[in-house]
């Protein structure tokens, strides 16, 4: 009896080791990424309020431009991990190089568009006459680093697909340290002001891209993979990423609608909403680490033809997601009295923030499931379904959120609408995973 049960016990433990080995370093890399903006803000903030405001506007535009192309990481991870599972490392790296070439092309196009339109983009966000010159300067210089930023996304996807999340952690930490040092030296040492901060970020991004390319090129030479651009391969990468682009744009639309509604509720509500959104995003980093592990592991299992193994590890990751979300939610609820004073002492903002924080805390177990299943389906290359599911979610969320001010609801009601959005996402993702149609075996989907 004991011997019969042993394999059942051993499988979850093996899955736990796989998940932890990839998720823990991935979490470290994810946390390091937002530190770039924090370091820039801390250094530029001492130059003056107009410079800091200009940085905020330019950073918002850059973040939006780059995050739209996050599919470069997700789609590449899925494609590379499948070929790793199939035992064809040469094809895996070749697939990764196609993603990197696509990133270079897209990066060059975005940079070329951003340079002449920078003043118009800055004015579109409502920058004042004193802030606009600083925002334009930072945006124009930083736009030169967009190709490197997109290469970092694609190369991160390659490395993760190769079942390595430690290298992205090392590169992210090294990039943060270099960025902080260069910013301080160029802003104050060289006296370049906000332009120095932009140049420091550009140089750090190119250094990170160079570090990733060195790793990928070394792997390509070891396994005899070509480094030359392949038009058919680049086109295939773009086609695979297109549905994930739709998914990402739909998710960005959800966040924009939520901010629009919060602004209509009043100044205190929109201030509290920004705090909630920051905390929600921070918690998402922890849960997204499991999703990244899911992308890499699921792709490898399916590439090896082991659909049963892929489904088993999916079930285990869902358990991890629920447990992680529950712990994070309880911590957030318990820490409310400590968290609120860190962000505001305005009684009106506090009154709006405190009840809505409980809603965010209560939704974390749902978020844990959503992030995990999102990663599972990305790892399976099921981007088309993810696109349609996110569009359906947007169609439910938009009217619910827009009705909040019409019906006299406040910020708490808006965050219940956000929770509804997560519940719809969970329902659509569970529907797909339970059907089993996502688990398509083979080196390609």
Describe the model.
The structure is a single chain. 86% of the residues lie in helices and 0% in strands. The chain has 17 helices and no strands. Helix 4 crosses helix 10.
User: What percentage of residues falls in helices of 4 or more residues?
Assistant: over 70%
- The end-to-end distance, rounded to whole angstroms, is 40 Å
Query: What is the subunit arrangement here?
Result: single chain
In terms of DSSP E residues, the strand content is under 5%
Query: Largest beta sheet, briefly?
Result: none
Would you count the extended β strands for me?
A: 0
**Mass-distribution shape:** globular
Helix/strand layout:
Blueprint: H1 2-32, H2 35-44, H3 49-67, H4 71-85, H5 89-124, H6 132-143, H7 146-161, H8 166-189, H9 194-223, H10 231-265, H11 267-303, H12 307-334, H13 336-343, H14 347-362, H15 364-379, H16 383-406, H17 411-435
Helix pairs in contact: 1-8, 1-11, 1-12, 2-3, 2-8, 3-6, 4-5, 4-7, 4-10, 4-11, 5-6, 5-7, 5-9, 5-10, 6-9, 7-9, 8-9, 10-11, 10-16, 11-12, 11-14, 11-15, 12-14, 12-15, 14-17, 15-17, 16-17
Pfam families: MatE (PF01554)
Family: Belongs to the multi antimicrobial extrusion (MATE) (TC 2.A.66.1) family.
Keywords: Cell membrane, Membrane, Transmembrane, Transmembrane helix, Transport
């Amino acid at each position: 009896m004991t011997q019969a049960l042993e394999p059942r016990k051993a499988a979850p433990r093996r899955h736990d080791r796989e998940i932890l080995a990839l998720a823990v370093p991935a979490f470290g890399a994810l946390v390091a990424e937002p530190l770039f903006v924090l370091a820039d803000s801390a250094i530029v903030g001492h130059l003056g309020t107009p410079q800091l405001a200009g940085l905020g506007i330019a950073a918002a535009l850059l973040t939006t431009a780059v995050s739209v192309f996050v599919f470069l990481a997700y789609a590449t991870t899925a494609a590379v991990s499948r070929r790793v599972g199939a035992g064809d490392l040469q094809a895996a790296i070749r697939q990764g190089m196609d993603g990197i070439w696509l990133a270079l092309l897209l990066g060059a196009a975005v940079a070329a568009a951003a340079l002449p339109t920078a003043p118009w983009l800055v004015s579109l966000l409502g920058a004042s006459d004193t802030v606009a010159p600083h925002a334009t300067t930072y945006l124009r210089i930083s736009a030169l680093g967009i190709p490197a930023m997109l290469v970092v996304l694609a190369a991160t996807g390659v490395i993760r697909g190769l079942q390595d999340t430690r290298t992205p952690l090392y590169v992210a930490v090294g990039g943060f340290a270099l960025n902080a040092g260069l910013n301080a030296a160029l802003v104050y040492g060289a006296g370049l002001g906000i332009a120095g901060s932009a140049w420091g970020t550009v140089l750090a991004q190119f250094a990170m891209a160079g570090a990733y390319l060195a790793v990928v090129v070394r792997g390509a030479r070891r396994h005899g993979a070509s480094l030359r651009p392949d038009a058919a391969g680049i086109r295939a990468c773009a086609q695979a990423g297109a549905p994930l682009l739709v998914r990402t744009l739909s998710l960005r639309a959800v966040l924009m609608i939520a901010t629009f509604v919060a602004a209509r509720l009043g100044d205190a509500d929109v201030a509290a909403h920004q705090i909630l959104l920051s905390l929600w995003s921070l918690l998402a980093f922890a849960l997204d680490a499991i999703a990244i592990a899911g992308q890499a592991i699921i792709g490898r299992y399916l590439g090896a033809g082991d659909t049963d193994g892929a489904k088993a590890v999916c079930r285990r990751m869902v358990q991890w997601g629920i447990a992680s979300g529950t712990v994070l939610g309880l911590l957030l609820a318990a820490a409310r009295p400590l968290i609120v004073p860190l962000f505001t002492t305005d009684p009106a903002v506090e009154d709006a923030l405190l009840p809505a924080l409980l809603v965010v805390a209560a939704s974390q177990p749902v978020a844990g499931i959503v992030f995990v299943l999102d990663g599972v389906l990305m790892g399976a290359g099921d981007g088309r379904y993810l696109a349609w599911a996110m569009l359906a979610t947007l169609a439910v969320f938009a009217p619910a959120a827009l009705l909040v001010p019409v019906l006299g609801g406040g910020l708490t009601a808006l965050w219940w609408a956000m929770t509804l959005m997560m519940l719809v996402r969970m329902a659509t993702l569970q529907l797909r995973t339970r059907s089993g149609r996502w688990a398509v075996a083979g080196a390609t989907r």
